[in-house]
Amino acid sequence: MVSPATRGRTAQSEPDYVARAETLAEGFAVRAAAHDRDASFPFENFRELSEAGLLSLTVPAALGGAGVGARYIARVLGIIGKADPSTALVLSMHYVNHLVMSRSPNWPARLSRKLGREAVEGISLVNALRVEPELGSPARGGLPATIARRTETGWRLTGHKIYSTGAPILKWYLVWARTDEAEPRVGQFLVPAGLPGTRIVETWDHHGLRASGSHDVIFDDVVIPLDSEIDVRRPADWGGPDVTQAMVHTVFVAAIYDGVARAARDWLVSFLKQRVPASLGAPLATLARAQEILGAIEARLSVNARLISSFAGDFDDGIALSAAESNVIKLTVTNNAAAAVEDALSLTGNHGLSRANPLERHYRDVLCGRVHTPQDDSTRIGLGRVALGL
């Protein structure tokens, strides 16, 4: 439960940070099209985020961060996601991991303090590297092929990670690996970026979120200290993901793609007001069909706003929630967002698909929401099994 003192401090901090995010988002939105076209990483966005104190929002106040909660972070990510979802996605993973550090008893205090202070002092981002070519996402089970071999002087890490979001700028990797012990254990190892034997292979050439730098990272006998082991257990002891991680990840992802849909909605409103076909002699906004479809978009976005705010607020207030419920939020919001952009396209014809306009980019970006763990089929199967008592 959030204490009255914490509530008071957060309430005072929120408007300042929201205003900073809104100011930065204006520049991010201007640069987003070029980064999308070139698939270039937006380093300048993270420099500005650091200078504005926005990289340390989920770092505890005791370490110099803002220590704000999920509801507030969802607002910030929605603002940044509306401007440049690639930047927002990298930022969200960084936020999630710092929230987990501050709440998980399995994180060594020395390391969580170190990473927290670095996030306050400069451009120091962290993300979890979990997905592999053969394994896919570990959320669906299976042992990673990445191996950590214990020696007298340290762990030696060898493996290949894909879809490593933010790879060009990350300072820290949380690498999902298994040990080479007779009975393997599985978990995370904290690895500084740039160590000998580490290589980033620029494989990311995607339909959407082209500026997220989600490249491959390869580890070839990389040496890390013995105390880099974060939370390594027998496979049978991993009953499920970290509850904090699972819940905030889904709602943060939802907020990003809701932001993309809002960017599409704003462009559509402008288009409908300005477009005057000769055959009509009036703006498209005067057509009942346009008004109805725009109204349907507004309805979807209203539902999204309520779901994100309510769930994140309950999480901050310590109300008992389930990972299944957060999965439903992610499924509903991301599908509403995709449907909203599809509705916008239905009104704009060739204009919406032209690369001269941002709507086609918003469409490519919003479709990526369905790819993130948990995927829709996993969420629906899980809900169906519960309903059937299986």
From TrEMBL:
Residue ranges constituting the Acyl-CoA dehydrogenase C-terminal domain according to the UniProt record: 254-373
Annotated ranges, domain Acyl-CoA oxidase/dehydrogenase middle: 132-222
Residue spans crossing the bilayer: none
Name of protein: Acyl-CoA dehydrogenase
GO molecular function, one term: flavin adenine dinucleotide binding
CDD domains (UniProt xref): ACAD (cd00567)
InterPro entries: Acyl-CoA_DH_C (IPR013107), Acyl-CoA_Oxase/DH_mid-dom (IPR006091), Acyl-CoA_Oxase/DH_mid-dom_sf (IPR046373), AcylCo_DH-like_C (IPR036250), AcylCoA_DH/ox_N (IPR013786), AcylCoA_DH/ox_N_sf (IPR037069), AcylCoA_DH/oxidase_NM_dom_sf (IPR009100), Mito_Isobutyryl-CoADH (IPR052547)
Keyword Flavoprotein listed: yes
Top-level taxon: Bacteria
Domain Acyl-CoA dehydrogenase/oxidase N-terminal, first and last residues per copy: 24-94
Keyword Oxidoreductase tagged: yes
